[in-house]
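Format notes (please read before filing issues)

Several people have asked whether sequences and structure tokens are stored in separate files. They are not. Every record keeps both together, in the order shown below: the sequence lines, then the token lines. Line labels are part of the format and must not be stripped during preprocessing.
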Amino acid sequence: MKTMEWRDGGLVLIDQTRLPLEITYVNCRTAGEVADAIKTMKVRGAPAIGAAAAYGLAMGGLKCESPDKESFLRHIREVSHMLGSTRPTAVNLFWALGRMMGVAENYGPGEVANLKELLLQEAHKILSEDIEMNKNIGKFGEQLIPSGAKILTHCNAGALATAGYGTALGVIRAAHDSGKAIEVFADETRPLLQGARLTAWELMQDNIPVTLITDNMAGYLMSRGLIDLAVVGADRITGNGDVANKIGTYSVAVLCKEHNIPFYVAAPASTIDMNLSSGDEIVIEEREAVEVTTVFGQEVAPRGVKVLNPAFDVTPNRLITAIITDRGIVRPPYKDNLSKLFSS
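Then the structure lines:
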């Protein structure tokens, strides 16, 4: 499925807030509309956010009417800042914007019109490269999946969270396509139910056996021998292998450790932030209380109740069996082996 597509000078996004009951699309014609789609989670998932932001910056450049290069650069720096302020945790957002700004800042003498086209082409590259990276993640990760495995996954790290194919679900798709007769348990992932609304829907579209469970059932299933491994995505991986992912990931990892079940993280190299030495340095996004106190607009909590709503948590590297990347499988010690990943 296509999470996003450049069409007729605009970015068309599947509206993930309406799934699975309604398949609708958002047609972003300005960088501001892309920023709004990211902030309101119409598009979500670290790689998808990065690709969308790249198109948003390209769109901001296309809308700039000044033929003067310096004026153009000032304009797209402002656009980059605006897009970068939408969500603080997912590193792919800043990676993609940095890559786009690198193209702009390093552009030599030439017409601004040519630079605009270069920025759009770079956004296209980020999109297509992400799909290929995800397929490589699937190729490497599939090797870790035994035939007949029962797999737990948390949140949505599928085609919807990327440019296509998926990270954690890319591993699952590759295992399924190889005939391994796997079964997936998708937890619902409160508060926004990405597991129930998105992961279960994606897997059903591909005829991959999936069972939906609530978040608090995982430990019970593990204790009964119903889970063989867990695989999740990531929004940021630090230089020591700590992983920020959707809130609740840490709990799954702790349960896996208790039950001696492998816990895998699947993410492209663009999600690895070697500038941060540990998960303690990751900024955790705090979202609005209404996401917790309501479900599909229906109030489910007393009005005025105090709410905490961190969107992510950090899983320490000691709980992670391996990190599956598009460049290969990384195992402990993560600080050394992640460094080797980027030096090779």
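For reference, the curators noted about this record: Residues 285 and 311 are 6 Å apart (CA to CA). The mean pLDDT is 97.
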